[in-house]
Amino acid sequence: MSDLIDTIRPLAKKTDSKILMVVLDGVGGLPLTPGGETELASARTPNLDALAAEAQLGLVELVGAGITPGSGPGHLSLFGYDPLKYVVGRGALSAVGIGVRLGAGDVAVRGNFATLGANRVIEDRRAGRPSNEKNAEVVSKLREAIPEIGGIRVEIYTESEHRFVVVFRSPGLDEAGQGLGANISDVDPQVTGVQPMLAVAQDTTSGLTAELVNTFVQRAEAALSDEPQVNGVLFRGYSDVPHFPSFANIYGLRAACIASYPMYRGLASLVGMDVVPVEGEEDALEGKVAALTENWAKYDFFYWHVKKTDSTGEDGDFAEKVHKIELFDELLPGLLALKPDVLCIVGDHSTPSKLKSHSWHPVPLLIRSDYGRKDLAARYTEEEAGRGSLGLRRGTDIMPLLMANALKLQKYGA
Amino acid sequence: MSDLIDTIRPLAKKTDSKILMVVLDGVGGLPLTPGGETELASARTPNLDALAAEAQLGLVELVGAGITPGSGPGHLSLFGYDPLKYVVGRGALSAVGIGVRLGAGDVAVRGNFATLGANRVIEDRRAGRPSNEKNAEVVSKLREAIPEIGGIRVEIYTESEHRFVVVFRSPGLDEAGQGLGANISDVDPQVTGVQPMLAVAQDTTSGLTAELVNTFVQRAEAALSDEPQVNGVLFRGYSDVPHFPSFANIYGLRAACIASYPMYRGLASLVGMDVVPVEGEEDALEGKVAALTENWAKYDFFYWHVKKTDSTGEDGDFAEKVHKIELFDELLPGLLALKPDVLCIVGDHSTPSKLKSHSWHPVPLLIRSDYGRKDLAARYTEEEAGRGSLGLRRGTDIMPLLMANALKLQKYGA
């Protein structure tokens, strides 16, 4: 599959039309027993049903056949970035996931706490899976011990259990626009019974970063020497900030992200969307409707995210996932009242309660505009979407289809 | 999307079977009101319906999801050439569109007549949109003034209004097979209030072409100095002849083009089809049936083009587009009487009357051969094609499918 972005960019034109992309995270599901109904099919969704009757439906695979997308690749595909080409490194995704913004030249690193025995030999690569509280306590010790290394600011964040994130803040960019390099070898040997490895730079611009990492390891072990179990650190996955062409650059769109969880706000900011404030706790559905309404005049593309359809699937709670779908259905009239020229409802992957995890199953796609044909699909469900006129597609097809339906794409060739 | 041509070429074999590809230009449509019928669904087409009942149907996107194809890319895709890889430049397409044949080493240039004020400053980049008659009158003056430049033959053609085409005929190819280069900068600054720009060669083989263009601009302004409005020329879009592998080279087919409009005859000649004479005015449907019958024994592939399904859509005349579809339906028995081994009916893009322009919507594809499976699609309409057994595909899939159905493709691998 070629990169559509280079084809789309010169065709994009600015118009007054508005596109609303609703992402119901993990919305695709499975029946609990063969031949049964999925969460979407079980839900009572009169508003979605009415919308589906006049919209076009299809199914999308976000990354590829049989491939289960993580949240990063799933969203990048929705935003039109081929997730096999545009990769967010582990370090950057971890940072983004806990709400840490990365600047040009910064490097984010994924760390694990470990238990070291005599002679620094690794006994447990996860330090006995400490509690989040213990993690935070140790991170606090490290913050005090290592605020900076050689003038480079060091930030340390709790992720969960044995996982933490370190961000080395670049002192600035050199004349070639280069900050800290991220191409260095792992400290984590991925086995026990040996010592942590020395980080080695794999290119000329990453030498300083390798030194920072090795110094960090040394000073962390000193700071944690009185800890019986959480007394070592291992690093794996270093990333600088991914430089993706922005939504404004590709599509000419002023784009807003309306999401309440850090991961999704972070992903949207990576592609240059404005991340607008949302009031409320957790999924904050009403707050998101309010944020959408308040910002409606200011933007021409809106990414509007619902999280709980995924979390309930991850919990394996079929009934609760059905309930979250129904809650969204109740809000739908509020979105329709804004009269988007193009409305899209889709997920970033499936999360069947039966599997308690993300899955590879295609996700239903709905597009409503004034330029649709008659469509046989009567509901926003996996089964009905399978006979919709949009067919079975890659996720990266969605943005071109939305742009076309908004009459924002010029003809290709004469 | 990979280039299928390299896979197909070694598999192609010659047989006596005949393939007829009917291209109903812009045939795909939209309902005028949501939930209504498209032009195809509204038309009374008993012959097409009977054919569809025994054929296989599907939908094709010629360039990609959401992308509206121009006639060039749309046709190249139908002929099996990836339109993102095989690009016909603006100059060449304009020349082709008015029926001018280009030879190896020639360069075709798109020109606009402009109005220049004092000190050669551009006042109007379209010279007040002159009539076609005025255009022809000015072209005639230029032909007299600039028959050649430094021994290089110069041909000047009216396109329409302010548009004209210049062809510089290469004096021959050098030892490396290089003629005139086409890689030079635009004369048209695309704004008013400034002078036309000097053309500058962007590579070593285009130096002479840049000189030709600059000399042409100078001599044209001298020749038009007594014109009050049409007194300058601007150039933009230079192209040499695209070198595409031919139909004979890829498919081993002796291919004939049966079309009455210059653009389509030109596109077919670019891929090495024989362009056979057609008697009659405009779309000349009866003339095309006669040309097909006369040439039936001589070729094994026929590209048979109908134009008016597109022009009526461009006019926004829903009823007239329906009528043109019905006129084709009346002719269909004449085509079937020739008993093609493989019959394909398709469009090069959609042209919904509602949009009065080409559009991105997929086009119905019909393939009839002795080697089809049962198919749920009962009519040649967008909706029925959407449940056909051929699925939703790229246009470049069509030629391999036709070759296979004609039993002209060998097994791939042992």
UniProtKB/TrEMBL annotation, chains A, B:
| Residues making up the signal peptide according to the UniProt record | none
Query: Could you tell me which pathway this protein works in?
Result: Carbohydrate degradation; glycolysis; pyruvate from D-glyceraldehyde 3-phosphate: step 3/5
The record's listing under Gene3D superfamilies reads: Alkaline Phosphatase, subunit A (3.40.720.10), Metalloenzyme domain (3.30.70.2130)
Which keywords label this protein?
A: Glycolysis, Isomerase
Q: Which reaction does it catalyse?
A: (2R)-2-phosphoglycerate = (2R)-3-phosphoglycerate
Check the record and name the Pfam families matching this protein.
Answer: Metalloenzyme, PhosphMutase
Per its UniProt record, what InterPro entries does this chain match? Answer: Alkaline_phosphatase_core_sf, ApgAM_prokaryotes, Metalloenzyme, Pglycerate_mutase_ApgM, Pglycerate_mutase_ApgM_sf
Q: Does the keyword Plastid apply?
A: no
Domain named Metalloenzyme: which ranges? 18-404
Name the Enzyme Commission number(s) assigned to this protein: 5.4.2.12
What the record says about family reads:
Belongs to the BPG-independent phosphoglycerate mutase family. A-PGAM subfamily.
What's this chain's function?
Answer: Catalyzes the interconversion of 2-phosphoglycerate and 3-phosphoglycerate.
What is the protein name for this chain? Answer: Probable 2,3-bisphosphoglycerate-independent phosphoglycerate mutase
Q: Which organism is it from?
A: Deinococcus aetherius
Gene transcribed to yield this protein = apgM
